[in-house]
Amino acid sequence: MEVRITVIVPVWNREGLLRRALDSIVFQSLKPLEIIVVDNNSSDSTFEVAQDWIKEHKEEGIILKLLKEERPGACHARQKGLENAEGDFVIFFDSDDKMRPTMIESAVATLSGNPDSDIVCWKCTIHQLDGSERIPTFMADKPLEAHLIHALLRPQGYMVRRDFIEKAGGWKKPVVVWNDYELGLRLLLSNPKIVAIDNVLADIYAQEESITGLNFSSKAGLWEKTLQEMEKELEKSDHTDKQRLIRIITYRKAILASHYYREGNKKLAEELMKKAVENSGFFEKAILRFSYIFTRSGLRGAWRLVRYFI
């Protein structure tokens, strides 16, 4: 099965990391049709690094494009790449991460057995700043829940049919943070045919400097706006389980509040919790409060304890 794959790499100030990401793409066991690098107003030598890399690899038999996007934010850079893509499927891959050698080959092989699929997703390993590693919970049989809780459709973890993502609106929503989280919801609400690979095919490396910052408090208010946009998408959808999905968004607000608390912003945390539970019944308030206290104490896995009650 011949599938044309476009890999889109948005990049901002990654002069020391970009080559690793691009090398991992160009040396795939099954090469993509094209690689599109979109520089998002880098202030270091990232653009020049990308230029040099493209010159070095112009004989690889891959279409290589280097674009500039002056509007700040990965959302705009990814959309610029999407608008210039020629492949049947697109992968949005971050500039500080790494594809495992058979990622594209595995995705295409899985697609060949499921040719009507709109999305192929796979596991990723996240390498934390402290040296620890984790593989996010992967519930591909419950994609909406998996995405709302564990960000199933993280950019490094799936490829999507280009016309499908364009129909869903692409990266055009005006959200500053968690834009991949918001887009993932829109994609899943569009009822895709989705198939999963139960293997780790990409490595994600946490960075001290990123567009989302080092903590949640530094962008307080922006996370809430993204969650509000997601609530709006759910409200206007005809999904049969949308009320439960909206309750999961409320649960995410409680978890966000717990992060504010752990970062020393108790007032901010309590204000968000008050808003989160104000329209909830007695039992739901108790569940949300438990999740908040459990997580702010430094414990993980609250969802496993409360998922059957939300």
Offer a quick outline of the entry.
Helix content is 43%, strand content 17%. It is α/β, with parallel strands linked by helices and 310 residues long. Strands 1, 2, 3, 4, 5, 6, 7, 8 and 9 form a nine-stranded mixed β-sheet that branches.
Any overview of this molecule?
This protein is an alpha/beta fold and 310 residues long. Helices cover 43% and strands 17% of the residues. The chain has twelve helices and nine strands. Strands 1, 2, 3, 4, 5, 6, 7, 8 and 9 form a nine-stranded mixed sheet that branches. Strand 6 (119-127) and strand 7 (133-134) form a beta hairpin. Helix 7 packs parallel to helix 8 (222-236) and helix 8 (222-236) runs antiparallel to helix 9 (242-262). It is globular, with a radius of gyration of 20 Å. The mean pLDDT is 94.
Over all CA atoms, what is the radius of gyration? 20 Å
β content, as a range? 15-25%
Low-confidence stretches: none
How many strands, what sense, and barrel or not for the largest sheet? Answer: 9 strands, mixed
Shape: globular
- The tally of beta strands, per DSSP, is 9
Helix/strand order: EHEHEHEEHEEHEHHEHHHHH
Helix count equals 12
Distance from first to last alpha carbon: 42 Å
Q: Based on helices, strands and strand pairing, what is the structural class?
A: alpha/beta
Which range best describes the helical content: under 10%, 10-25%, 25-40%, 40-55%, 55-70% or over 70%? 40-55%
